[in-house]
Every structure is written in structure tokens, then in C-alpha cells.
Design a protein that fits this description.
With 645 residues, the protein is an alpha+beta fold. It folds into two domains: 2-171, no CATH class; 176-644, Porin (Beta Barrel). Helix content is 20%, strand content 43%. It has helices at 2-14, 38-46, 66-98, 104-123, 128-140, 142-147, 152-171, 250-253, 320-323, 536-539, 578-583; strands at residues 176-191, 197-198, 204-205, 219-232, 239-247, 273-287, 290-301, 327-338, 341-349, 364-366, 379-393, 397-414, 417-433, 436-449, 452-455, 460-469, 473-482, 494-495, 498-499, 504-516, 519-530, 546-557, 562-574, 590-604, 607-619, 631-644. The chain has a 20-stranded antiparallel barrel. Strand 14 (436-449) and strand 15 form a beta hairpin. The longest helix is centred in the first third of the chain and has 33 residues, at 66-98. The two termini are 32 Å apart. The relative contact order is 0.09.
């Protein structure tokens, strides 16, 4: 029945195959069985939607008159009305039966009947557009329909009511929406010239089972992960959502901290694990006429790269859930609307954010990470309390002010004192003026021991940058200074393998150029020097240290599905602090080079495959931790298949 009505509606709206014909046989003699419209015509004739010519022919090549079309429209309307009236009758009959149900068999019969009825109703959800078009046709052919004796006004009313009922059906949603993704990742490393490789995430490549250099088939890890996000679909009342993750990637990536080269060897295929990445309920209300929200549970939070933002330690695995820069915290985020401004207050802890196997989801850590030169102690914090105020500025600007208190899990010696708390405070401002964006920020970190400040010097960071974007090209540049004792758990950059470098100052620049319709060239660089010679033993840099880093990449969008990329990155250190040289004799320079080749292929709207091979060439005598003699040459082959649902 559902298919018959759909055939009729489609046929009438096309106004090409509805030509009056009549015959007593199953179909029209002048329509061959191999014709594309054969099946549709059989159904339309069987259900009385095609009346036919007296000679029994279809005459498909003959143009239809307005009266003939009016006959077809009315027939379709009568059929559609019969469907809805029939459903109403079924519903009434089932309702009457409910009053006298006494046996289990009666209940089962009712269930079967209701299931069949539900299928009919679900099938009607797609009728909305067709009914609207049929209503328009009834207006267009109003005179012809009246000439046939049709009550056009009643027909319009019925179609209007039917359209409202179908619209209500279309708006009905399931109580819970389920989305997510599945990722399959392969990481295979190889050595070259009997030396390990070293990738940008400080992992050795080409490590065999016995710790000696090996090839791709030996140093191979296959990783899988599936994430399932459940969320409520209610439009009123509290909103809730949660993401459950199953796989073996967390033990490979999530449990790492303070990654010194070689400390974790190559990539290891971890045990299967399960964890709840986030689960929260959001409530909305108002206080004093101002909007107020409260998100409670396992929440995601970040401020800015220089103040509070989780760094990305998965360069070779792309996933929105891993790369969003947000820390997960068990607690809550309160939001207050203060006129045009917004105040966010966050409080919670991270010590219990572990998987079933006990792996931490995201440790909140301070200090330079993946340290290649210095030995600045890394502090891990548990409790977080803070606030961020966002104030709109003239035109399209915004000012953000933040104050955070982080308490550590344990005391760690810093400069001979115990420290168990870190205070972070500062702000940033941004303006958008047409195609130009400018901004900057300033912030400080104070180490404390039970409320007493133990380190409040050389602990600031400031930056300024500008950017211009047009359709085919863009350029950006900036300047920054980050003092040695600046310890915010942020994500402000990488030099070689070292993330969040401190005791540096210098310029940054970058840009992109669309060379052709499908060819884009990107590049960037950073030119730094050491800021202070008093911290060479902990950062590796003094005022004579120079750090030059640049990268370039060319992307070719071969087709809508296929893209190719080739890139090169080079970071050079010179004039490293003599204290580091004394600890590990060697040259006072270091070099990191990576060449990357990538192929991306879109399999469908929800599936994508990426293949990449990266060659490393690293020379650094100060980070010898596992063979190599200060030289690391090798490669990393990675592939990722992502399917979203």
C-alpha cells in the first residue's frame, strides 16, 4: 500500500506518465514489459489510479490534457485518503480491543497488529513533500476538479490536515541518539644504516623484540578503537551526553608522560581497554535575569594554548576526540551570562580519570615535555579550580582573562623547596577586522608550597601575532618570549621533539598559497634564541643558543576523493649551553629533519583512508638513551582507516 501511494504521487508530480487509459488486463497492451515504467503502471492501474482509454491503450506519447490530469489527481487523493482513514479505523479497533483484553494470546495479537500499524505509520513519514506538492496541484487544477464534481475545498482541508499529521511524525525523534567512529591504525617503524629512527612524538622507530634495529615487519603495531557517543534528543529540560571508548590505543598513547627519546622505545600494541571519556548533564536556568548553565560530570575544558590546553601527542593519529585540546575533568563547569560577557567557573579532579586497566586519560602536567636537552622536573596535578571571563570588545574583538589553581598529587623538589601548587593567571585579546586578525597575550605561573610562593621570577610568557587571509593566499607572523620558569600545562609549540619549550624568545612566520585550483603550498618558520643564561642546566639554552625551524608542504587535491601531500621539516640548534655539553660530551649543536609523504582517500561520506611514510634524520648527542650513538635514521609507516556513523 505504501509503495502504491508513493508511485501515484511521483507519477502525478512528474506529469509525464499520468495519461488516461483503460483496459481490463493487468497492464496496457502498448507498454512492453521491459519499459522502465512498466511496474509503476501495473500498480497504478491495479489500484484504480489510471482510468484508461476506451480502446485499452496507454498512449504514453500523447500529451495529457488538464482534465485528464485532474482525474488522476483526484484518484490519488481518494487513494491517499483511504490510507489515512484505514489507519484511523485500525487504531480505533485496537483501542476498543484494549478495553477487553483478558488473555495472553489477545495481548500478543495486539502487539503484532500494533507493530504492523507502526510500520505503516513510519512509511508515511516520507510523504510530507509529496503531500505538499499534491496540495499545490489541487489549487492549480481547481476548475477542472470542480467540473468533475469534486469538493475542492474539502480536498484542500483534508490535505492540509494530513500534511500536519505527517509533519508531526517527521519531527518525532528517538529518545537517545547514537553517533561515533571506528579507527584502525597501523604503525610500522624501520631502521636505516643499523640505526633507529626517531619520530616527532619522540618514539624510536625500527625497534626489534630484542632491542636492536629492525625492519617494518618486525616493529609493527596494529591498534583499534571504537567510540560510541550517546546523547539525549529532548529539546526541553536537562541535556546529557556521554562517550564510551573501547580499544587498545589508550595504553599506547594516553599513558605517556615526560617522553624522553627512547624512554618508551617503539610503539607497543597495548591490551584491550575500556574507558568513559566524558559523561555530563547540562542544566540551564537564569539568575537575576541573566542566563546560567551548569555542566556536571566528566567534562571537557580548555582555555588557550599558553594557559591551559592539552597538547597533542598523537601526530600520526588524527581524531577529533584526541585532538580537541581539552582536558577531561571530573567535576563541573558553571557558565554565567553577564550582559554581553561570559564567566566560566571550573572545578574538579583528574586522579580518577583512568580506564578499566588503570591507564590515565590525560595527566595535567607542567614543564617542557619530551625534553631533549634539559632536566626540568615535570609536575603532575590533580585538582583544578579556576575561572575565565570573556569580554566582547569593539567591532569583533574579545578579551579573555583567566585565573587557575592547580594542586599536585605529590610534592616535587624545585630549587631545593617543596612545591605542591601552581597558580596560572593572565589573558589574551583578539580582533578580527575584515580579513585581518591580530591578537596577543600575557600570563604568569607561580609555584607555591601550601599557599607560600616559592618561585615567582622568570615565570612569564607573552606573545603577539597577526594574520591576513584571502581566498587564494594568507600570511601570518608573530613574536613571543617564554621565560624558563613558565610552567603552564598548555600547548604553545614544538622545537624538534621538545614540546612547550621555555627560556626562548623569537619570531614566527607562515603562510599558504593556492597555486592552482587543486594545488596548495604551505610553509612556516620560527627563529629563536635563548633568553637567559642562568637556566642552561635545566633548559639546555642560554643567551647564545640559536634555534631555527622551518617547514614546507605541498598538497595536491587530485580529485574529490584523492589527495597527495609531500612535506619537509627541519629544526637546527646551535650554541647549546656548556652545562649540557659538560654532562654529555659532544658538539654543541643538534639537528632534526623529517620528510613526509601522505596519501588520503575518501572512500565515502563517512569513511576515509590515510597512508603516510615519514623518514627521520636526527643528530643529537645529548639524548642518547638507547643505541644510535646520537644519530637516528629510519622511518615510520602509518595507515589509518576512519569510519564515522
Amino acid at each position: 500500500m505504501k509503495r502504491t501511494v508513493k508511485y501515484a504521487l511521483s507519477a502525478i508530480l512528474a506529469a509525464t506518465i499520468i495519461l488516461p487509459a483503460a483496459a481490463a488486463s493487468d497492464n496496457f497492451p502498448d507498454v512492453p514489459e521491459n519499459h522502465w515504467a512498466f511496474e509503476a503502471l501495473v500498480r497504478l492501474k491495479k489500484d484504480g489510479l489510471l482510468v484508461g482509454y476506451p480502446d485499452g491503450l496507454f498512449r504514453g506519447n500523447r500529451p495529457a490534457s488538464r482534465y485528464e490530469l485532474a482525474v488522476a489527481i483526484h484518484a490519488c487523493y481518494i487513494n491517499l485518503k483511504g490510507v489515512t482513514d484505514g489507519l484511523d479505523s485500525q487504531i480505533k479497533a485496537l483501542t476498543d480491543k484494549l478495553n477487553g483484553v483478558a488473555t495472553q494470546a489477545d495481548i500478543q495479537n495486539l502487539r503484532d497488529a500494533l507493530a504492523a500499524l507502526q510500520n505503516e505509520v513510519n512509511g508515511m513519514k516520507t510523504y510530507g513533500d509529496d503531500i505538499a506538492q499534491l496540495k499545490k496541484l489541487s489549487v492549480t487544477f481547481e476548475k477542472e476538479l470542480q467540473a468533475l464534481g469534486v469538493d475542492v475545498e474539502a480536498m484542500k482541508k483534508d490535505l492540509g490536515e494530513l500534511n500536519e499529521r505527517v509533519t508531526r511524525l517527521e519531527k518525532r525523534k528517538p529518545n537517545v541518539a547514537i553517533t561515533g567512529d571506528v579507527n584502525l591504525l597501523m604503525l610500522a617503524g624501520n631502521s636505516r644504516d643499523n640505526r633507529f629512527g626517531l619520530d616527532q612524538d619522540a618514539h624510536l622507530n625500527g625497534v626489534g623484540p630484542n632491542g636492536t634495529p629492525a625492519g617494518l615487519t618486525t616493529d609493527l603495531a596494529t591498534l583499534e578503537e571504537g567510540a560510541f557517543t550517546f546523547s539525549g534528543t529532548n529539546e526541553e529540560g536537562p541535556k546529557w551526553k556521554g562517550t564510551l571508548v573501547v580499544g587498545n590505543m589508550l595504553g599506547t598513547f594516553g599513558g605517556q608522560s615526560d617522553l624522553h627519546p627512547g624512554a618508551n622505545g617503539g610503539y607497543v600494541q597495548a591490551n584491550a581497554d575500556v574507558y568513559l571519556q566524558d559523561f555530563s548533564v547540562t542544566l540551564g536556568s537564569s539568575i537575576g535575569g541573566q542566563a546560567f548553565t551548569a555542566e556536571l560530570g566528566r567534562v571537557a575544558y580548555s582555555v588557550s594554548p599558553y594557559i591551559f590546553q592539552r597538547y597533542d601527542n598523537t601526530t600520526y593519529f588524527a581524531n577529533d576526540r584526541w585532538d580537541d585540546g581539552k582536558y577531561r575533568i571530573d567535576g563541573g563547569i558553571l557558565g554565567f551570562k553577564l550582559g554581553g560577557a561570559k564567566l566560566e567557573v571550573v572545578a574538579g579532579s583528574t586522579s580518577k580519570l583512568t580506564s578499566v586497566n588503570g591507564v590515565e586519560l590525560n595527566a595535567i602536567q607542567s614543564g617542557p615535555l619530551n625534553g631533549a636537552f634539559g632536566a626540568y622536573p615535570v609536575m603532575t596535578f590533580d585538582r583544578t579550580l579556576g575561572a575565565t571571563l570573556s569580554i566582547p570588545m569593539p567591532t569583533t574583538g574579545k578579551l579573555n582573562l583567566s585565573y587557575l589553581v592547580l594542586d599536585s598529587l605529590k610534592d616535587l623538589p624545585v630549587d631545593g623547596t617543596g612545591a605542591n601548587r601552581l597558580i596560572i593567571y593572565g589573558g589574551d585579546v583578539h580582533f578580527n577586522i575584515s580579513k585581518v586578525e591580530i591578537g596577543g597575550g600575557y600570563s604568569k605561573t607561580d609555584l607555591q608550597e601550601n599557599g607560600t610562593v616559592v618561585n615567582s621570577i622568570n615565570n612569564a610568557a607573552w606573545h603577539a601575532e597577526g594574520k591576513y587571509e584571502s581566498k587564494d593566499w594568507g600570511i601570518k607572523g608573530g613574536y613571543r618570549e617564554i621565560e624558563a620558569n613558565y610552567l603552564a600545562p598548555g600547548d604553545w609549540g614544538q622545537l624538534g621533539i621538545q614540546r612547550n619549550p621555555t627560556n626562548i624568545k623569537g619570531w614566527t612566520a607562515g603562510g599558504h598559497l593556492r597555486m592552482a585550483h587543486a594545488l596548495t603550498l604551505k610553509g612556516g618558520g620560527e627563529w629563536d634564541t635563548g633568553k637567559n643564561s642562568d637556566f642552561g642546566g635545566t633548559t639546555g639554552f642560554d643567551s647564545g643558543t640559536k634555534m631555527n625551524s622551518w617547514n614546507v608542504g605541498l598538497t595536491w587535491q587530485v580529485s574529490n576523493a584523492l589527495s597527495l601531500m609531500v612535506g619537509y621539516q627541519d629544526t637546527e640548534f646551535s650554541g647549546l649551553d656548556p652545562a649540557v655539553v659538560a654532562n654529555t660530551p659532544g658538539s654543541n649543536s643538534a639537528s632534526y629533519k623529517w620528510s613526509t609523504f601522505r596519501v588520503g582517500y575518501t572512500l565515502s561520506d563517512s569513511a576515509k583512508l590515510t597512508l603516510q611514510y615519514q623518514v627521520s634524520d636526527v643528530s643529537n648527542d645529548y639524548q642518547v638513551t638507547q643505541g644510535g650513538g646520537g644519530r637516528f635514521t629510519g622511518g615510520l609507516l602509518s595507515s589509518q582507516l576512519t569510519i564515522k556513523f
